[in-house]
Fold this protein.
Amino acid sequence: MRRATWLGGILATLLAAFWLGLDPRDLAEADPDLWVAFLRAAIQPALYDEATGTHWLVPQVLHATWATVSLATSGMGLALAIAAPLTLSSSVRFTGGGVLCAVSRTVIAAMRSVHELLWAVLFLAALGLTPSSAIIAIAIPYAGTLAKVFSELIDEAPMDGARGLQASGASPLQRLVFGTLPSALPDLCAYALYRYECALRSSAVLGFFGFPTLGYALASSMDSAHFHEVWTYLYALFVLVWAADRWSWAVRRRMVRA
Amino acid sequence: MTVEALYAARPKDRFLRGSLVFASLLLLGAVATRDGALSELWSPRALRNLARFLEEVRPTWTVAWWREAVPFAAVTNTVALAVAATGLATGAGALLSIGAAGTITTPEPWLASARPPSSSARWVWHGARISTRFVLVILRAIPEYIWAFLLVALLGLGAWPAVLALALHNAGILGKLFAETLEDAAPSAPRALRSAGASRLQIVGAALIPTVLNRWLLYLFVRWETCIREATVVGMLGVVSLGWFVSDARSRTHYDEMVALVAVGSVLILIGDAVSLWLRGRLRRR
């Protein structure tokens, strides 16, 4: 099985490359000057506007960064609010299986199966270019993913606490909140923070659709071939994602210890 | 102990409390500034837009219409993009993971050498490991869509920028995960080979790869699921996957076709997830 899977994978890759007409010679045809200019700009990110050379870029970078953070945070906040009831209804332990659980799992699968950028395209058509479109576009698929993983984490958490409470006559909600949740909490928080990191990336990409995040600034700099500015924005995104990753790591470590 | 005493003795952590406060402040700040507010959702303009949109998205249930709206090539290209990118990412991730693994890229792998390594040897090995890890961090910090946008500008339109974009981001993720499995592998076999004089690469090929392959396959399939999602979307930059047809329908304001294409993409993702889940289940049982 293992060997067959690997061989199948290699064969499938070659087949897919052939299907798409991927030819390594096409890569050699790319303009080397453009590449060199782009990569050279990596070590000299712009601090000043490249068009004039005098206008300080930092306020613009900070503005785009804050727009990215605020979109991601609102989207994530809404996603958590939607995910909370869906987590309960998708948890086998809380509902005891049954129709509600099955329906709820189908709903969250549907929410997840449309990419946030496609949700964004739908909401741009339905609502126009307002921050709401972007926030809802992030919130729907993220709520689906959060509810799926949260309900799995709750179902896999140790049973002992909940059993003890059941013996003393606690309701299902009490068993969940006081018996199961405390042991699942570090994993829940770690996963929520990981998704926040993903939300920052998604929010940056939503800039390509006209929202004022890092993606918007990056796209307009790239379109005017201002490679140094492009790298400034790339580094800003990198720092943002890296900070979120470190935060999530520190929170998880302390929660497991406590 | 009374409940009050238990409550007073609960574990407290200043950093965690600070984190909670910081997260709440971020949320408040985000909602307060215009970029993060849901306020415009109920404006008359948005509601008018919504009514017009729903008017245009009347489903048409004829086979001919669906065949016209959703070209078969869009679906096959999306799957092919995901497969080719996962294949490339696995190759690149495997190579990078060897450089990033702390047990391999170190002056004294698995066994202390007879003479302590020179300080320049230390610098070279640690430098190589740290720079490989840095490359991996950069690769995965930049989202697929941004890689694709940059590569379309540098390489021109075609399948290459899309495949490379997905491959670069996933090579960063797979490289990290593969390196962790290499580091966690049992050290007994590598140690025995090392004492018999095997080189690093010989040990990787003979002792490590066989033990980690199964785990790598599991990771690979998880990333393949994500690749199908992203392959749909990078099409919007002009590569002929589902996303291209979505943005084309959007620019022609044929919203019914657009919704149909998004629905097909959603079904494709659900099928991909199911296939991957089934294969992973079979692999786990081995």
In short: Chain B touches chain A through 83 residues (CB under 8 Å). DSSP finds twelve helices and no strands in chain B.
